[in-house]
Amino acid sequence: MAEEGYPVLAGRVQQAFDYLEETGTLQASQVIHEEARQVDSSLLNRVHTERHIAGVGRTSYDFASRLSAGAAVRAGEAVWTGEAANAFVFTGCAGHHASRDSAWGFCYYNNTALLVRHLQKAHGVERFFVVDTDPHTGDGTRDTLGEDLGVYHLNFYAAFGEGEEPESTRQVDVPFPSNCGDASFVEALRRLATPLAKESRAQMILWNMGHDAHAIDYGGFQLSLHAFPEMTKLLLALAEEVCQGRFIVLLSGGSEEYVARHTISSIIRHLAGLSPLPADTGEEPAPDTPETERTARKLVEKIITELGFDTEE
Length: 313
Ligand SMILES: [Zn+2]
Hints:
The protein is an alpha/beta fold. The protein has helices at residues 7-22, 41-47, 50-57, 62-80, 111-123, 139-145, 182-200, 227-243, 257-272, 290-307; strands at residues 86-89, 128-132, 151-159, 171-177, 204-209, 247-251. Helices cover 45% and strands 12% of the residues.
């Protein structure tokens, strides 16, 4: 993936992986490292059109895309069957902008949708909660899974706090103000993901994690390294509450090697129950101002009210 992935995303893969090795994370007895294999073509056909698959086949990212999708599907299998308690999926091409018949933004195949379709067919898994905190909207995930009544999709993206009203609790878009600090962001995630995870009665929680949400990376958010282990803690705790801890993190956008190293390390170490490395949060938290805090709170309360949940939570 580091060699053949999309150039913007690929450079970070080896860096992040090497750092896991240097810090002893990969060698820890709680961590299983598995090489990805290419996704089955028959599974691709169940998510994407022939025309789209043929089009991707003519790009130089076909192999890395198939490998990324295969990694996601294998993670789903390992976590569902209990071979692994949870999983982190490295990708060379991301997935959340890949629709049935089109794709953009370094994405070709929808890794999340392929994982879901595999578990539905192979194991009869019916209910999933997909959380997307990449600052770019998960349009491909909505396109490929939106009609599926068993899939809840909470979709954060960088905007100005203005957006359309949510259609249902199954499909919640959060046009989150891009200048907010860590605390506002994590609090918004907590207040929205908690009731949705419970209502969804998900059997697995999937997190599309883009570290382009970090202030120095290319996405629209201004988060610091501190936000990523906090989000991991929160979502893993929710998974423990609703689905015996079945939780998978799928690597999405982000190109900064420094950010990749520390966010991926802090996430994997938390998933594995390893002690955090101080270097992984060795920067100042991203602050809120009274105004960003207020804008974020107002947005979250508006969405919660529209969805009919209790705003007191
Ligand atoms: Zn992104």
